[in-house]
Design brief:
Blueprint: H1 4-16, E1 20-26, E2 32-39, E3 45-49, H2 58-72, E4 80-84, H3 89-97, H4 106-113, H5 162-174, E5 178-184, E6 188-190, H6 197-214, E7 217-219, H7 229-237, E8 241-246, H8 262-268, H9 271-279
Parallel strand pairs: 3-4, 3-5, 5-8, 6-7
Antiparallel strand pairs: 1-2, 2-4, 6-8
Length: 282
């Protein structure tokens, strides 16, 4: 399991090595939501996120590995990329340490979870599914529920959670040309959220490049999605935005062991370079 503690150790190493490390804000429990910036600031920027769903912390490891490779690889890229590897640190701590890490929220979380086994938990410390909490057809997604839960609860209103507020504000301040969100699992690539005309054609061209690089299945419909970070970026910022689902095959299921990433690392190690290159063309 890739933990919040391990992430902070990796961040300390990157910072010591002269790589720009910072925070986009804090979670409900006051835990920092860190970023890593690689590249130049005077050219187009992109954002790559992971770990918005607690049980998908293997995506945090992938994003950190991408950041390490981009930071120390001699052949770089134009522009810059902000890597935000763990958008949901409280959820990650629930998986790592259980409800004892949640202070006064412990009883509430155990009640809605049905016990102390949080290995399938996706939400934050308020029982809100953060990838349903963005203002893009909020509350209309397939499979969403009406009350706090381990997954599927969009929240009382869009951007009700400090984590999504932080990511919204950070994204607006960075003004990225492209965003990518990593999830697990399925080995699928999502890019569509009701774009039309030239924007649709632009985004499809980039999606095809990512499809070719990863070998994942490109999905050309919205699939009932709403309230996701990708959806919000497309609808409100009118930029190309992608959800990439890693891990699949051989009967894989949650919780996912980090060793399962090995088969997907090769498929995704060059995604930052594709993204940075495409950002210069958007």
């Amino acid at each position: 399991m890739y933990t919040y503690s391990r992430l902070n150790e990796d961040l300390a190493y990157l910072s010591y090595s002269g790589i720009d490390v910072g925070s986009i804000g804090t979670s409900i429990m006051g835990n920092s939501i860190p970023y890593i910036h690689v590249g130049e600031y005077c050219h187009p920027q992109s954002i790559i996120t992971g770990g918005i769903h607690a049980r998908e912390n293997v995506t945090s490891l992938l994003v950190v590995r991408q950041a390490f490779r981009a930071a120390f690889k001699r052949c770089g890229f134009e522009g810059g990329i902000y890597f935000v590897p763990m958008v949901n640190p409280d959820g990650a701590l629930l998986l790592e340490k259980g409800s004892c890490a949640m202070g006064g929220r412990a009883e509430f979380l155990c009640k809605i979870n049905g016990g102390e086994d949080f290995s399938l938990w996706k939400a934050n410390a308020a029982g809100v599914d953060l990838n349903n909490n963005f203002d893009a057809l909020f509350g209309q997604g397939v499979g969403q529920v009406k009350d706090p839960a381990p997954q599927g609860y969009a929240g009382p209103h869009a951007f009700s959670e400090p984590e999504t507020k932080a990511l919204r504000s950070f994204t607006v301040s960075v003004a990225p040309r492209i965003t990518v969100s990593y999830h697990a699992m399925g080995r699928e690539l999502y890019w569509y959220f009701f774009q039309e005309g030239e924007e649709r054609e632009r985004d499809l061209r980039i999606a095809k490049r990512l499809e070719a690089a990863t070998g994942y299945v490109r999905v050309d419909s919205d699939c009932g999605s709403s309230g996701g970070y990708k959806d919000w970026c497309i609808q409100n910022l009118r930029i190309p935005s992608f959800t990439i689902e890693i891990i699949g095959g051989c009967g894989k299921k949650h919780p996912i062991d980090c060793c399962d990433l090995d088969g997907d690392w090769e498929a995704n190690k060059n995604v930052p370079y594709i993204v940075a290159d495409a950002a210069g063309e958007v």
